[in-house]
Amino acid sequence: MKLKLQGITERGAVTAMAVSKHVLNMIESLTCSVCQSVFVEPVRLDCEHNFCKSCIQKVWGKQRQAVSCPECRQVFPRRSFTSNKVLVNLCEEGRQLKEDRSLCEEQGENLREDTESEHLREDTERGQSLCEEHREKLILFCEVDEILICAKCVDSPPHVDHRFLPVRKVVQKHKDLLKLSLDSMEKEKKNQSELKQQQEREISELEELTGSLEKDISAEFAKIHRYLEDKEKHLIEQLRTQKEEDLRPMEENLRRIEEELVSLEEKISNLCVDIEQQDNVSFLKVTVYNPILKIVGVIVNSSL
């Protein structure tokens, strides 16, 4: 089969293929499923799907709770997403490659010669899957339909005016893009590891400081407790000493009062016996010389 490749240098063809492969990869991996454009401020949901920040906000609208992913429909209890730093630089590259896409389209048809030589080289390699329609090896990738085709499919009606790339170069470009993503992820992993170590150091320092402060606080309060206990004992001893000093004269006075009461009770009892005396002579003998009557008489006379 003849392929149309006239007036284009090998270098130009390689450049066109490289740009086309970049654009293909950007379309496949850097396109927002909502706006169908290269991500702008890409954010990642908890389900690992990515969207433009403005697109996911528009999809969710004013809804604050029970929001879902537009792709997998996973439901989340609340609005939550994180900025995907890995995709930011890749999206910038994708937009730059889209600007160069016109050059790729101008040179797209000139890639057939390179495809034919690629076909010859791959004949010596492992067996390839065959085209279902033409039963020939699948050696090309249609950028428009995003399917593998054989050399005869290029001129068939379904692929008229489409752009094609050798399978090997499409695979290589995908690997290159994955390596680029891998490099970014490795850098991010290193950064996160450093942040993890720093956070672990800060946690360790905080725990050490807290433990030291706890010991200091416990020691200070132990001193306060000992001081208060000593103060308590001292005040109680003072109180008991003062009590003994105040109680001694009171108890002495109480003893004298009790003795006086006993004496009075005895005298009252004797007087009662005298009063009950029936014999007048005996009564006078007893009472005339009774000192109590003399005292009472003095008191009575003084009151008169």
TrEMBL record:
Region (Disordered): 107-126
Keyword vocabulary terms for this entry: Coiled coil, Metal-binding, Zinc, Zinc-finger
Protein known as: RING-type domain-containing protein
Coiled-coil region(s): 175-216, 240-274
SMART domains: BBOX, RING
Annotated B box-type domain residues: 126-167
Protein source organism: Scyliorhinus torazame (Cloudy catshark)
Molecular function in Gene Ontology: zinc ion binding
Keyword Zinc-finger tagged: yes
Domain RING-type residues, every copy: 32-73
